[in-house]
């Protein structure tokens, strides 16, 4: 859009454009900005779904504690590391270890898995997505070699958040994000689009919270109702809402790494391509063995359940060609690090991990945690 040129814009100006622009114009502008900042190459992150045990009972989630129909599994640290090694041999240099909220496992097995991956895949970035843990546990995981952490805030509406997350408040979530930034992690968060009870105002606030948190990574996907949850029968929002959300986040956070999510690809056969054309620049091939990932059904209709990781990487490469993009095996660190992220364990960030000083990125996070959360949500929820 000519009237919204590529220089940095104020949020108010971006929001005004978002409110009046049709989806084509909005996503076109976000795509242009993404190409300018990140180029044509789409970063790959190999996803390992290491455990579907979860202590939480979030109303939206298929692997919630109360869903007795789920066959529960945990991969051993050796298995997790073997999957990463296989991915590394295939060229991947960025891995995401994701599991349900399982603090005992996250504190015992996960550090061993991280250590092993750090050892055998020295150039790889290791990202964790293991839910809310205490600060000391985050610190230990950082010390053994984790680089990044993903923890979506899910929705920025405090009441909706609490009601969907079994009474756990948004304030506690934001506190965890502050801890992670203080410890020197590259931090990702994000939200679902189309949750029951969400409004257009919520969606705008979600995107603004991402900016306020100065996130390095933002994951957005459509909420897809799961039949074995209390939200079964909720209406499915159209993919367009997610595309508009992705475009808005791209305009507000030009440097953020943003995946074209599997949920988008599950809702719409071309959902991931559409997200990339709306400003996303990352893809996450699922390298979990089919025998395990079949049981990691956060939502129904999830794609790639029968495919091995190599198949997905090949598939994604072809899919990207159809939209004039290509896959990249780079680590894809946050641009704010200016290519300075250290490779391998024992980075000098470890000192920050041991002595949680205020890293520069922690300042906006801390401010956001205190400014965007109503007082009643502020402390431990
Ligand atoms: N539909 C879409 N996304 C979901 N997630 C959890 N349940 C669902 C669902 N029913 C998302 C949450 C979580 C991420 C791992 O998956 O945002 O953070
Ligand atoms: Fe998994 Fe296409 S990306 S089969």
Protein model, in words:
By secondary structure, this protein is an alpha/beta fold. The chain has one domain: Aldolase class I (TIM Barrel). It is built from 16 helices and nine strands. A six-stranded parallel beta sheet has the order 2-3-4-5-6-7. It has a three-stranded parallel beta sheet with strand order 8-1-9. The longest helix has 18 residues. The chain is globular, with a radius of gyration of 19 Å. FE2/S2 (inorganic) cluster binds next to α13.
Q: Could you give me the name of the CATH homologous superfamily?
A: Aldolase class I
- Most strands sheet: 6 strands, parallel
In sequence order, what are the helices and strands, one letter per element? HHEEHEHEHEHHEHEHHHEHHEHHH
Report the total helices: 16
Number of strands: 9
The level-1 CATH class: Alpha Beta
Q: What structural class is derived from the secondary structure elements?
A: alpha/beta
**Whole-number radius of gyration?**
19 Å
CATH arch. level architecture: Alpha-Beta Barrel
Stretches where pLDDT is under 50 for at least 5 consecutive residues are 1-5, 344-363, 370-381
What is the percentage of strand-forming residues? 5-15%
Number of spatially distinct domains: 1
Mean pLDDT comes to 91
Bound ligands, named by name, code or SMILES = 5'-deoxyadenosine, FE2/S2 (inorganic) cluster
Shape: globular
